[in-house]
Amino acid sequence: MADEVPPPSTLPYPPLHLDKKFVALSDWDGTITNRDSNDYLTDHLGFGLEKRRNGNLEILSGRATFRDAFREMLESVVKNGHSFEECAEVLKQNISLDVGFKNFYDFCKANDIPVVIISSGMAPLIRAVLSKLIGDEEAKNIEIIANDTIIHEDGTWEIKYRHPSSGYGHDKSQSILPYRRLPNPPTVFFFGDGVSDMSAARHADLLFVKQKPGADNDLAAFCTREGIPHVLFEDFDRALGLIKKVVEGEVSVGEAVKVGRA
Ligand SMILES: [Mg+2]
């Protein structure tokens, strides 16, 4: 599907990073952060963990689209009377970064590897949490390709999907495929953990799938079921060990995938 006609985007894209050897694209929720912020909102302020988890499994099995199931999760938060500002505050208090992300980010900066956040969450919430975690200045420099939020005059809010015609809501492959069409394409790393990354999984040159004890690990289940080559990683420090070897030419992308776990 993603290779055919791209879904029209309601939101702009930043320019592609041209003439880079490597580009790092990463999911935000549960990948760069330790827990998924939208799951957190749904579990604590919306219709609760059981119904949310059921929604994730419906997406994983293909019985529901991410777009529709995720919208319902967020609507349950709004129906319980929680404003967008309140949600941002709750997340700032409860969401933390992956233990190795800062090291990974510093390595990428030092090695001319752009890092772009590719999220099915809402950009204003990501910015708010990122600023709290790494400071306003650094947060401003990180590009985010995500969905957006519409805040109504009565204080209610809703998600604005980047690709409303796609069942993914935000088809993450659309952040990878344009790199493939460049005359001098970079090696694209993609990092993800959950159902929101299913649209990207087949398209990265090197896919890193986060697998944490006690977490849902839906992307790992999806990739195993679909036979999509990937490298499992528990945190960015682990991933960085392998990334360094690939960047330094010690290990090829093909060899890295065969390693299977960073
Ligand atoms: Mg995620």
From TrEMBL:
Gene3D superfamilies: 3.90.1470.20, HAD superfamily/HAD-like (3.40.50.1000). The lineage of its organism: Eukaryota, Fungi, Dikarya, Basidiomycota, Agaricomycotina. One of its GO terms (molecular function) is phosphatase activity. The keyword Membrane does not apply. It comes from Cristinia sonorae. InterPro entries: HAD-like_hydrolase_phosphatase, HAD-like_sf, HAD_hydro_PyrdxlP_Pase-like, HAD_sf. It comes from the Eukaryota. This is HAD-like domain-containing protein. Keywords: Hydrolase.
